[in-house]
Amino acid sequence: MQRNYAEDFPILKNSTSNGKRLVYLDNAATTQKPASVINAIRDYYESSNANPHRGAYPLSERATELYEGARQRVADFLNAAGPDEILFTKGTTEALNFVASSFAMDIVNEGDEILISIAEHHSNLIPWQMVAKAKGASLKYLYTDAKGELTEEELDAKISPRTKIIAVAHVSNVLGIVNPIEKIVGRARQVGAAVVLDIAQSLPHMKVDLQALDVDFAAFSGHKLYAPMGIGVLYGKRQHLSKMRPMLYGGGMVEDVSQQEAVFLEAPYTFEGGTQNVEGAVGLHAAIDYLMGIGYDEIKGIEDELSLYVVEGLLNNPHVILYGNSHPHNRTGILSFNIEGVHPHDVSTILAADGVAIRSGHHCAHPLMRHLGVNATCRASLSFYNTKEDIDIFIESISKVRRWLRLESK
Amino acid sequence: MNLNEIYTEIIAEHSTSSRNRHPLEEASIKLEGKNPSCGDEIVLELLIKEERIEDAAFTGSGCAISQASTSMMIDLIKGKTVMEARQLAELFSAMIHKRVSDESQLAPLEEAAALQNISNLPARVKCAVMPWRTLEAATEKQPLE
What we know:
- By secondary structure, chain A is of the alpha/beta class.
- Chain A has helices spanning 10-14, 35-47, 58-78, 92-107, 126-135, 152-158, 181-191, 210-213, 238-241, 278-294, 296-315, 344-352, 366-372, 388-404, and strands at residues 16-17, 20-21, 23-24, 86-89, 113-117, 138-142, 163-169, 194-198, 217-221, 232-236, 254-257, 262-264, 320-322, 334-339, 356-357, 359-361, 377-381.
- Helix content of chain A is 39%, strand content 17%.
- In chain A, β7 (163-169), α7 (181-191) and β8 form a beta-alpha-beta unit.
- Chain A is globular and about 75 Å long.
- Helices cover 42% and strands 19% of the residues of chain B.
- A three-stranded antiparallel beta sheet of chain B has the order 1-2-3, with helices on one face.
């Protein structure tokens, strides 16, 4: 019998929503946290809290060890060349903004092109609009086909010698489709473009080997990976980080300061001005340990089976319109759909009455919504801690929506 | 939360009704209302003559709450003076933000008082309020030439 991982998550065991058991299907927005992560944060504050890299006393040394230990763990987990390629940030948004302001602003010139996909989250879109505007460059889009995929023809048509940066999500937060990163990187190398990869939606579900992918930068958020909010990671190749300017100047990032000058530390410390989120790093370390204790094979096995089950259930309802690839094995557990005649917000309100939490709206992807020709969608997103019983409750609740709006008789 | 108190018969009826949902050719004021984060969009059209709302209609799309709220508002304001309409919009806002809950005080809202329970759904308050905000903004605008 398969293990029920919901047992590891206090909120899933204890919470009720509207008097009913919580069925949490908004994992692409944020995941719940296992007891091991919550305990690691409590232990940190009960036994190891001090300002890292500052005090020459055991408690501060312990805090430093924990913070740098988390950096090493992330580097190993992503197969970076070393911990000096790992910067802690608040999350994906901050990481991508940093790449835009401290890398792209220096290498993009007038007439150059920045290429992103139409399916990008606003966090991997607006920073590039700003760079393009500031530098007189043009922001170009890779358009997804009817299945939500980026075809080789589209890559060939858009990647040109003028392309300086290609910024794409590994997995779309709306369609769940895995983008062809190897093909994008291969073409980028031919034209000398840098590749910025948003792995926020892929890392919770699949192994990401950054040296194998050979991307220049990658970013993710801890809170979508079972770790706390407020901690995230930017990976950058050494060759780039060594040339980049800090974004925040202040304590913790300098070697020596005189009245008129300052000598900065090297990467990654030069990019981490101010006291850092040690509790977040500790929580992220614990979350990676927890996930690796389960293993990606097990996670993928459970999530693929649940995806298949939920796609079947949704397609059995004649009023459900499912977006993107109909193949449940290339969805990463993300299902964007609409119910004929019903606005997504009404769907989520009606589902909430049954204890079911899904997202509705534009999912921070206005341009993709327009490309799909919709105002908004509903999105259910899975984790390995979901069960078939969760899906049954969800599908049953979906079947009642049109009746509540008197579009069908009771 | 009890859905029976939210998706009532009257809200369902108004959300799909076509009675007030059409362009208004003689409109003297036309204003777009939006909840960009939801995708609720309406265009409110008013025919105002001598400070009185002679006719009103809307076009657009959005959730059942925003569409029902718009339709109920139009039923209510037709024939009222601009001043009366603005007072009703203020009362509606007070109801949705729980500043007024007394049934007799809400009586002037007529059918729109059926939206009172939306005040218990913080995420949906902006859906209910959007058309009324649009009305307030529209009545501050100069009439079309």
